[in-house]
Design goal:
Elements lengths: L1 H6 L2 E6 L2 H15 L6 H11 L3 E8 L2 E11 L2 E9 L3 H4 L1 H15 L4 E2 L9 H8 L30 H9 L2 H15 L1
Length: 187
């Protein structure tokens, strides 16, 4: 898939352009039915982490089609917030993007690539497994305050399906306005 991306004429830029990242990310999470974080949140992350983070953006010609915010810690790179436009899939832009993150991190001396967490049975999980990564189960501890059980905020929960279907149909500019207050209430 990386070779397909190369043959499609993809190239990448590494910078701190969180505005370009946010536009692509907003499209991507809207298509998943997920509310988007504010652009200001990404700006604050870049300000706080400075040289310990960057943005890798994939371009098809001059058009940005995929982008990811990466964090660097010790000898590890963590691509954390990323996404792609609808055409990214046909261009193999997501595979190319993660290859570029890995390549650039290796050039800087980083040794580990952390693909992050994904729920088993999701497209993200399958995408990461296709790269050859072996999943490591994560354990969580919860401290319940005024609750008897852990809230099920999993997007695979059937009670969210109508909201997800509606969200996917909203115009992206509207999701950029509505998303941040919703995300604050969830997270």
């Amino acid at each position: 898939m990386v070779r397909k991306g190369i043959s499609n004429g993809l190239n990448s830029q590494c910078d701190g352009d969180v505005a370009r990242l946010h536009d692509i990310y907003a499209h991507s999470v809207r298509n998943l039915g997920t509310p988007v974080f504010s652009r200001r949140y990404f700006e604050l992350l870049k300000e706080e982490f400075g040289e310990a983070c960057d943005v890798v953006t994939v371009l098809h010609g001059t058009k940005p089609v995929a982008s990811v915010l990466n964090f660097y810690f010790r000898d590890e790179v963590l691509p954390y917030y990323g996404g792609g436009l609808s055409e990214a899939r046909d261009l193999a832009a997501n595979d190319f993007m993660y290859w570029e993150v890995m390549r650039r991190a290796c050039e800087r001396g980083f040794k580990l690539f952390d693909f992050g967490r994904s729920k088993a049975g999701t497209g993200a999980y399958s995408f990461k497994r296709n790269w050859g990564f072996e999943p490591t189960p994560l354990t969580y501890q919860f401290r319940l305050i005024k609750a008897e059980k852990i809230p099920d905020v999993n997007p695979l929960n059937p009670k969210f399906q109508a909201f997800i279907a509606l969200w996917r149909r909203l115009p992206v500019p509207l999701t950029k306005v509505l998303g941040p207050p919703i995300v604050r209430g969830i997270g």
